Amino acid sequence: MPNIKSAIKRVKVTEKKNLRNRMIRSAMKTNVKKYETAVEAGSADAALLSATASAIDKAAAKGVISKNAANRKKSRMAKRLAKAEA
Known about the structure:
mainly alpha; Methane Monooxygenase Hydroxylase, Chain G, domain 1; 0% strand; elongated
């Protein structure tokens, strides 16, 4: 544990941010997994894709994942849906 006051504060702030980021990332991953299981089961639709893309966008907006990573994930999901429907 640090002795300096500013270092103690940094540890507290880092722990809070880490918890927030984990919660957001976990929610995003849960949505992605639901989407992937729906695609495999053949019950995925555009509404589910939209909801999952929204969760990914929220994570990107909050800085949990980068904008490019979010766009890459959404693109791959849309491709899988198009392939499953065809």
